[in-house]
Amino acid sequence: MAVSATTPLQLSGESSTRTSGQLLRIDPLLMFAAVALSACSIVVLHALNVPPYAGEYKRQAIFAGLGIVVALVISRFDYSRLRELRYVLYGLTILLNLAVFAFPAPGGSAGASQRRIPLPGFSFQSSVFCMVLLILALSAFAVERSRRVGEHRTIARILLLGLIPAMIVMAQPDLGDALIYGVISVAVLFFWGTSWKHLAALAALVVAATVIVLTVAPTVGVHVLKPYQTARLTTFLNPNCNPNRDTYCYQLHEGLIALGSGQKTGTGPARASQATGGFIPEADSDFIFATVGEMYGFVGAAVVISLYALLIWRTLRIVMIAKNLYGTLIAGGILAMFMYQIFVTIGMNMGIMPVTGIPLPLIAYGGSSVVTTFIAIGLLQSIHVQARMSSAGKARALIV
Amino acid sequence: MLGPTPADDRTPPMTPQLALRVAFVGGLALLMFAVIFFRLWFLQVLTGSQYAAQAQSQTVLSIPVPAPRGEIVDASGQPLVQSVPVPSIQIAPRSLPGGGATLDLQLKQPVVIPQAAEVVMARLAKLLGMSDAPTRCTYTVYIANKGPQVSHVQLSPIACLVAQSVAQSQYGNATVKTDVPTYIQDYIGERQTEFPGVVSQDTYQLKYTLGTAGAQLFGYLSQVTPAEIKDKIYKSVQAGDVVGQSGLEEQYNQYLQGVDGSEGVKVNAQGQFEGYAKATAPLVGDTLKLSLNAALEKVGQQALATSIKANSSLGADGGSFVAMDPQNGQIYAMGSNPTYNPASIANGIPTKEWSYLNNPANHEPLLNRAIQGAFPDGSTFKPVTATAALETGVWKLGETFNDYPGRLFCLPGAPCLSNAGHANYGVVDLQTAIEVSDDEFFYNLGRLLNGNPANYPKGFPLQAWARRYGLGQVTGVDLPGESPGLIGSPTLQTALWKQELECQNATGPYKGDPKHPAVMGDFGNEVLSGGCGIANASYWTIDDNVETGVGQYDDQVTPIQLAVVYSAVENGGTIVTPHIGSEIQSPTGTLVQNINPAPKRKLNINPAYLAAIQQGLYLAAKGPQGTSTDVMSSLPLPVYGKTGSAELNATPNGPTDGWYACYVPGTATRKPIVVVVDIERGGYGTSSAAPVARQILSQFYFGKPGPMVGLG
Questions:
Q1: CB of B6 within 8 Å of any CB in chain A?
Q2: CB contact, 8 Å: A122 with chain B?
Q3: What are phi and psi of B401, to 5 degrees?
Q4: What pLDDT was estimated at residue A110?
Q5: What H or E segment, with its residue span, contains residue B85?
Q6: What pLDDT, on the 0 to 100 scale, is given for residue B444?
Q7: Within a domain: residue B192?
Q8: How many domains does chain A have?
Q9: Residues in chain B with pLDDT < 50?
């Protein structure tokens, strides 16, 4: 270990000019995308200011403000130092996800099942927060073993490290977030440099597992997933389902009606009957994209999608320019998390993806998700700042 | 610089391998964004209008507002049935205190009425003088895919009305009481805090200006049933609509119905009220103008009742009349007795009233006997027999029959027959036979007209002529439920014999009924005693044809059919289509449609033969020996009329129906009329039916009914 264990998790205050220089070195487009998406979220939630969503826009604004500050603060630190804390981070991932079992599962229909840790004035969804912790920890473990990229054992070990918290989250039960943990694990392996052969084997394994879980196991009487979970994953494949009988079919159906009825320019907030009349299920979170589509039409939805495209492009770019492997892996994990959340959630709203309770980053209402996403943005900015500083240093050295 | 960088950090960040992988993920992202964009374009731009329509349909409920029914007016435009607003008290279920009366389909008792609402209803009951005691209440909730759910609960009468209304529609008002004094409306209006949810509003009710006269003509209304809605007559009717269920209200429902308006109500996903959307005003139904003469209708109905009462000692218990233009079939008046008050059942039928009206012991007041009461018509059938005899040539004009004193009409194997009261009329020709109603003369014609293949290769001429005159089939009058009647014939005999055997042995349609054993003849083809009395033999005899020729036994004729027969005699053989509607008018009075059904056919009858029959009919009403001369001679009109006294069964001195069929021809007046009267169990036609016809004629031509002549 080259880095001194005593070095605190902050940059030694070399000079105030350095700090202001650092702020200038953040990626302005990435920041713009994140802040603009948050602004969109507040606008939509403000338009959706009816029970049971009344007042959410204010809380969302507070979360976003808090998130921006957190992101800016994080961008000032060198993420590389977090590598040392990998055991702590991994331990926290496991602990926080286990902690929710101390609190009762929310009542209501099967499906609205994310467990939370109730805090005064705020309930904390640990499975979401821990996504970032897992990215940091897994990336660190991967960097540790970066000289043994080709080894089966290493791949298996990293996968296992990812699967343990995923299993815990699945037991909460939160299938959607558990799948994100899996995606993060695969993404870290992917950018780490796992060979295409191994990746192909892994893909084959995933396909086989899916087939077994969804079709083979139930026919022999083994139910890995609860029936409602299977229904969530498969309903979208059946366009002729009956919305009067099947909850997920109803949700998909209502989402499509709302989204489609926005047409080119939207109904406007005042006439968005599907969102404000309660026809869209979870119009503030899981199906908020349908709300956007109904209120602001193709134009509004396209703006949101464009901002996500900007977010993904800047994240991809940070994956490339990171000054070290750790940065690459963190950025890669975050990229996978974003892409999965964006495509699965928007796809679900459009009836082409399974019904999973995954928040749409920055747009969906929810403190845990917004703050976690901004933590991820902060980490990306930190990677960006460090990369720019290191290349600037090199440049300065060349000039001198 | 920060000093020496850690060894692991020195890994070059941008290897070709990483570049490939970033490109791979970038390509994946690009692909996904493309999919999302195109899907979004498809959903919102290409097919967005479909989804917008779906969104609209699930957020705006359309609550039907029933249209006021169109008026029915008589020939002079005088209203007979009117939809008039009456001051009423209603309850708006949603505005009741305690959250309002609402539907909760999860419950056994799906309509939920809060305690606070019951207090208001109790207060209202006291004010309106209604009971507050819980009684059995039944209401039906219709649920898509589940069908009707019927609930029986104990509720106060007002709460029951509210529950029934909510079960039907959560948004409509429940009418608690109609025709309330205006001071009650004012009292409630001034005390809205005491009566939250109670509304003073006018509701539409049907008003009948003729009272009980012609009740069956107009018919009653009630909510359409799911089975009825498929009926062609109810086209453009929607579930829940109130429609005409009989009479003209049913026949002309599509015009009288109007077009329901709607009230748009915005709701959320839970079906909760969120505001009002676009409303459409209802369009009042068209006006149905009849050929009916209101004054004549009243006089006829009154005379009918008087005659039935006067002959009640003979067993008279019902009857009917029809007055019609013999040249085009326009009905001037039509009545049936016993009758009922249509207003009492038009706006919701009380159960008690309904069971009274349907109890056979009360002689079925709902029945329109003029079109539904098919009975043997006795001697009024004779013009048909006369036509058949002359046209087939079995009897010649001027040919005579010697009805010598003491003559009986005897056929082998059958009891001898005589004239009524064992009279004999000497040597008679056809005209005289009609004038005096010589039965033995017509028995003879019946014998001659029996379907002997040697004489009649084409079958049975009497039955053929009866059919040509329109008997044994519906006339096509514009009223629902018309009876086709029957004409005795070998085919009918075979059908009746089959029924008789089934009834005796309790098989076929009689399965489950008690058996009716009979003593049968040697060949098992005739009943000697016992049995059901539907038919007494399997075979047709000359005697049967003889009886058919004088309108007895199996002949079943309705007054409207007989009116068509006598119209044909009057007008030279045209079989008119009787109709009571004359025009459909828009509510503002412009013509929508003329009702002018074409005649069914024109019979080819030798005018000389018709003239002879007409002369016989004239003599029967005006001649020295005419059967109704007593009644008609003092009426200064050229009346052509025939009495009928039909035995209802073979019992000697059993009950007889009294008939009278007559006309004043178009050759004598510009307003010809045909009148048919039937008094069930009224005895002789001359003393029961003819006096009623006389008053109808008098009213029609002189504007006053004049005296009741020759009654009883």
A1: yes
A2: no
A3: -130, 130
A4: 38
A5: strand B79-91
A6: 94
A7: yes
A8: 1
A9: 1-11, 13
